[in-house]
TrEMBL record:
<dbReference type="InterPro" id="IPR058163">
    <property type="entry name" value="LysR-type_TF_proteobact-type"/>
</dbReference>
<keyword id="KW-0805">Transcription regulation</keyword>
<keyword id="KW-0804">Transcription</keyword>
<dbReference type="InterPro" id="IPR005119">
    <property type="entry name" value="LysR_subst-bd"/>
</dbReference>
<feature type="domain" description="HTH lysR-type">
    <location>
        <begin position="6"/>
        <end position="63"/>
    </location>
</feature>
<dbReference type="Pfam" id="PF00126">
    <property type="entry name" value="HTH_1"/>
</dbReference>
<comment type="similarity">
    <text>Belongs to the LysR transcriptional regulatory family.</text>
</comment>
<dbReference type="InterPro" id="IPR036390">
    <property type="entry name" value="WH_DNA-bd_sf"/>
</dbReference>
<keyword id="KW-0238">DNA-binding</keyword>
<dbReference type="InterPro" id="IPR036388">
    <property type="entry name" value="WH-like_DNA-bd_sf"/>
</dbReference>
<protein>
    <submittedName>
        <fullName>LysR family transcriptional regulator</fullName>
    </submittedName>
</protein>
<dbReference type="InterPro" id="IPR000847">
    <property type="entry name" value="LysR_HTH_N"/>
</dbReference>
<dbReference type="Pfam" id="PF03466">
    <property type="entry name" value="LysR_substrate"/>
</dbReference>
Length: 300
């Protein structure tokens, strides 16, 4: 059965306009005219039969349907970009094998990896996802990112990112019959769990909310799937800052409440002391630290 697709050449214009909420800025990013951006978006709207933007005199905003569509299209374009970079990268400087958890790989590392490839096209990155600390020699691991206390015997560990925990949800849950405006409104929504030690019972207690079963809702073993469920409006997730930062920045998720906790553990870059003699390991380690530092500047 053939795929039902929009005008594919118009999608970058829609994605840029949705991110900037400006046809002018989208045109500047793509080196197109304002009219070309407008025509591309109108072409998509006519094909879909829905409005994607509310157009004002000097501004534009996404409709609810447009916001949901933008989240999916942006994620799809990111995956296409990453796949293209991997497919076309030169094969000369060797393979770098990175070990990390499924959640960190899917929600933090992969959405940024195109920036590393752009700067280091001669390094091929291979990602191995596991919940346990790898044996670097036996498993052929060059560098790892781990969540914990940072004390790992026989290896070097460097602080990468602390973790704050707070509820996140799709923007659509801020509207509708039971909009999320205060913590007690959670009684009308599904709680999403991802197995993290700081759970809904603790958050609801700190928020002073009673009458909600903290164990109710839907449970995932994978933070990636749990976050995807929240992005798609399936409920409210107690998200980890490092794993939801990209979705928050893109508008796929929002924070309905201010209350947050700092986790006792953090993310660390872990490697053998001798590994930094290799340019590929040193380059990736430096890039990870730069990305994490940029995150801290954005989040304050």
């Amino acid at each position: 059965m053939p795929r039902k697709l929009p005008p594919l050449t118009a999608l970058p214009a829609f994605d840029a306009a949705a991110r900037h909420l400006s046809f002018t800025n989208a045109a500047a990013e793509l080196n197109l005219t304002h009219g070309a951006i407008s025509r591309a978006i109108r072409n998509i709207e006519e094909r879909l039969g829905i409005g994607l933007f509310e157009r004002g005199t000097r501004s534009v905003s996404l409709t609810p349907a447009g916001a949901a569509y933008a989240a999916e299209i942006g994620a799809a374009l990111d995956r296409i970009s990453a796949a293209t970079i991997v497919a076309t990268a030169p094969r000369s400087a060797g393979v770098l094998t990175v070990s990390t958890s499924d959640g960190f790989a899917g929600r933090w590392l992969v959405p940024r990896l195109h920036r590393f490839h752009r700067a280091h096209r001669d390094i091929d990155v291979r990602i191995s996802t596991s919940g346990v600390l790898a044996d670097f020699v036996r498993d052929g691991i060059d560098i790892a990112i781990r969540y914990g206390g940072g004390e790992y015997e026989g290896v070097v560990s460097e602080f990468l990112s602390e973790v704050e925990v707070f509820p996140v949800c799709s923007p659509e849950l801020l509207q509708g019959e039971h909009p999320l405006r205060e913590p007690s409104d959670l009684k009308h929504h599904t709680l999403i769990h991802d197995g993290f030690p700081i759970n809904w019972a603790l958050w609801l207690q700190r928020a002073g909310v009673e009458g909600i079963d903290p164990n109710s809702g839907v449970r995932f073993d994978s933070a990636t799937y749990a976050t995807d469920a929240a992005v798609h409006g399936e409920g409210v997730l107690l998200g980890r800052s490092a794993l939801v930062s990209a979705d928050l920045a893109a508008g796929r998720l929002v924070r309905p409440f201010d209350l947050k906790f700092k986790a006792t553990s953090s993310y660390y870059v872990v490697y053998l002391a001798s590994a930094l003699r290799q340019r590929k390991v040193r380059a990736f380690r430096d890039w990870l630290l730069e990305e994490a530092a940029a995150d801290r500047e954005v989040t304050g």
